[in-house]
Specification:
Number of domains: 1
Order of helices and strands: EEEEHEEHEEHHEHEHEHEEH
CATH class: Alpha Beta
Radius of gyration: 18 Å
Largest sheet: 6 strands, mixed
Number of helices: 8
Helix content: 25-40%
Distance between the termini: 13 Å
Length: 269
């Protein structure tokens, strides 16, 4: 094992400021009991600190807790935080609702984006932007901004009139998630396996879209959850973390993801 890759209970980045943009401390999370099955602990003490402008990648095998972490960070009701804290821009948001977290500037790109029948992308984003920033952007202003971003994301501008994700291919759904991130201008983005199901060309477009947003918003923090090195080849994260069985067991630079490619997760068990 490389000496530069160290195991730490708290994976604070060395460049993080006194008050990190986003911080998780000793987070324990369990499923909410349905009255039949008892709750199951999934996250068993996760700690992570992300500074302004940093990109962190979280990797791990299926069932290790990656998507549970993403859902918990956005306040999903099916999970319960039993101990630990989630802090955003110095505020403890552990008990905040999903709506408040989104309004404050957190964004989650879903692994499986949902269809919203009868609601166009244009109207959806206008309502979302109004909720996010307490502003009522005119349809014309939003249409012009959407056209610019759709061109950058290689999306046909006619998509803004289509219902959200209805009839979209997997790649189109993921591009639509990145489009939402561009328009809503979050401070912190969580990308939950955005590369899942994408071919090489669609993956490149999505990764390029993320980088385009970062050019416009260099202070944007990001947590990228993925199985694959191929996305990280495009995004080049500042830090990589390996999760096994509800714990972050190893943290390092980009070389850690390359080590995973050659040795697999078994070497971290």
């Amino acid at each position: 094992m490389s000496e530069s890759l160290t195991t730490a209970e708290t994976t604070r980045s060395p460049s993080a400021a006194q008050t990190p943009l986003f911080e998780i401390r000793d987070l324990h999370v369990q499923t909410v009991s349905d009255g039949v099955q008892p709750p199951v602990e999934i996250l068993k003490g996760v700690s992570l600190s992300i500074g302004h402008g940093e990109v962190h990648a979280l990797m791990g095998p299926n069932g290790c807790g990656k998507s549970t972490l993403a859902s918990t960070l956005l306040g999903a009701p099916e999970y319960e935080v039993t101990s630990g804290t989630i802090t955003f821009r110095g505020d403890d948001i552990t008990d905040w609702s999903t709506e408040l977290r989104g309004k404050a500037g957190l964004f989650l790109a879903f692994q499986y984006p949902q269809e919203i029948a009868g609601v166009s992308i244009l109207n959806f984003l206008r309502q979302a932007l109004s909720a996010r920033k307490d502003m009522d952007m005119s349809v014309l202003e939003l249409r012009l901004e959407l056209m610019e971003w759709m061109e950058r994301l290689q999306m046909d501008s006619s998509f803004m009139e289509r219902y959200v994700n209805e009839g979209f291919s997997g790649g189109e759904k993921k591009r639509n998630e990145i489009l939402q991130m561009a328009i809503l201008e979050p401070e912190m983005a969580i990308l939950d396996e955005t590369d899942s199901g994408l071919d090489i060309d669609a993956l490149r477009v999505v990764a390029t879209g993320v980088q385009e947003i970062r050019k416009d918003r260099p202070q944007l923090g990001a947590l990228v959850i993925t199985h694959y090195q191929r996305l990280l080849d495009h995004l080049r994260p500042d830090f990589v973390h390996v999760m096994i069985d509800g714990h972050i067991v190893q943290s390092g630079g980009g070389e850690l993801s390359q080590l995973l490619e050659t040795k697999g997760y078994e070497s971290f068990g």
